[in-house]
Amino acid sequence: MIIESLYVLMMTSVACAIIGAFLVLRKLSMVSDAISHSVLLGIVLAYFITKDITSPFLIIGAALFGVFTVFAIEMLSSTGLVKNDDAVGIIFPLFFAIAVILITKYARNVHLDTDIVLMGEVIMAPINRINIFGISMPKSLFQMGLMFILNSTFVVVFFKELKVTTFDQEFATIAGFSATILFYSLMTLSSLTAVVAFEAVGAILVVSFLITPSATAYMISKDLKQMLIISIIIALVNSIFGYYLSLRFNVSMSGMTATVAGVIFLLVFMFNKEGLITSIILRKKRRQQFKEELMLVHIGNHIGEMDEKDELGINSIKNHLNWNEDDIKKIANNLMDQGIVYRDKDLQSYRLTKKGFSQYNKIKKIYGM
After folding, report:
1. Residues 301 and 184 in one domain
2. pTM of the model
3. 195 and 286, same domain (yes or no)
4. CATH number reported for the structural domain that contains residue 53 in this entry
């Protein structure tokens, strides 16, 4: 039965990653955080109306309240008195705090555990089961499967419209696309996804499932289709590693999955083609290449000149390039390994090979020398 927790985790991750890609591209990551927290108030209010913790109206109420949260944030920021980020920081803690107060005050005897709502407990998901066409499965797996289908269908059907409104809203308006309808449709799906994911990963960690795989994918590829595919792959990898590591160390599955997601994001951040470590390595390589080209041009410029012996001397060239002896030896050895430079023992100087002269002429053309 415990393997079913992995299936729930994987389905949750993929469903979140599909919709999360557009949240990342639209710079709505913090809004997703606001939704995931404030929908709790929607759940509580819907429960007070229905008096049934299993009622589907709880999901509907929560989703609607998530959309209302986005609307409230947009309305507050549109006044010009408050920035969008500040509006997020005002609205969602208010709604979330009210929800927690209502739960602790009026719903103590109801199975609406704040710890579960906040952190999730995917390992318990297989206990709450449902029969579909005679097949017993975890209720969370069925619900997240529906969200996966719903999110996938929305993205496939409205892919062109989502792409246009995400990258060029002005053109979308001119072309007749309703950016507002798409925006609130996206927010509605985000709310639904966050609510359904509560049982598995909780209100806090669902943000990691929505944002981190897509943010990681965006550093790898800027092509939208590729980004979506990479997001899904990363989400699955996060889930699988998170599941097995959580069993190994006996910790929260959703927490470990979010941790793995953060580690993978950090690795990609450091080592992708524009990453921090990669940039340092490339700068070092470019500096090395520049020195090699400088030495090559220096040798080429002074071959056949009157001062050739002094300028290209094995022991004197360092004085003309203003490099230390170790740098000279290192650069010279690299050029010799490439078959560009050789040491003339008779003249006690550095010379260019045939390949070296060809490279020298190329460099002169590149720099207009």
Report:
1. no
2. 0.81
3. no
4. 1.10.3470.10
Name the residue type at position 231: S
The predicted pLDDT at position 237 comes to 97
Half-sphere exposure of 286 toward its Cβ, with a 13 Å CA cutoff? 6
Question: Could you give the number of structural domains in the chain?
Answer: 2
pLDDT (tens digit per residue) in 38-60: 888 888 888 888 887 778 888 88
Q: What token pair was written down for 345? A: 């023992």
Instruction: Give the pLDDT confidence of 151-166 residue by residue, as tens digits.
Output: 999 999 999 989 988 8
Residues 13 and 127 occupy one common structural domain: yes
Bridge partners, residue 343, by sequence = 350
Q: Does residue 258 or residue 100 have the better pLDDT?
A: 258
Q: What is the pLDDT of residue 238?
A: 96
Question: Residue 313 maps to which CATH number?
Answer: 1.10.10
pLDDT reported for residue 12: 94
Residue-wise pLDDT for 216-249, tens only, equals: 999 999 999 999 999 999 999 999 999 999 999 9
